[in-house]
UniProtKB/TrEMBL annotation:
Domain of life: Eukaryota
Protein name, as recorded: SV2A protein
Domain (SV2A/B/C luminal): residue spans on this chain: 1-56
Organism lineage string: Eukaryota, Metazoa, Chordata, Craniata, Vertebrata
Length: 75
């Protein structure tokens, strides 16, 4: 995912795997029984969202560079 904003969405029993997202946010969303595996979806990307009975495993660490958007990078 590059630049996506999800608003007022429900994610139930979903599996997010190997996701690097430079500018993705979840606003007023609900996650129920969802697994996040090897992602960079950190707490600050979930704005006014609820995470219920969900698991974050093997989060990406270190400097994540994204050159897909006009050579912009984030660290």
């Amino acid at each position: 995912m590059k630049s996506v904003t999800f608003e007022d969405s429900l994610f139930e029993e979903c599996y997010f795997e190997d996701i690097t997202s430079s500018n993705t946010f979840f606003k007023n969303c609900t996650f129920i029984s969802t697994v996040f595996y090897n992602t960079d979806l950190f707490e600050y990307k979930f704005i006014n969202s609820r995470v219920v009975n969900s698991t974050f495993l093997h989060n990406k660490e270190g400097c994540q560079l994204d050159f897909s958007d006009d050579n912009n990078a984030y660290m």
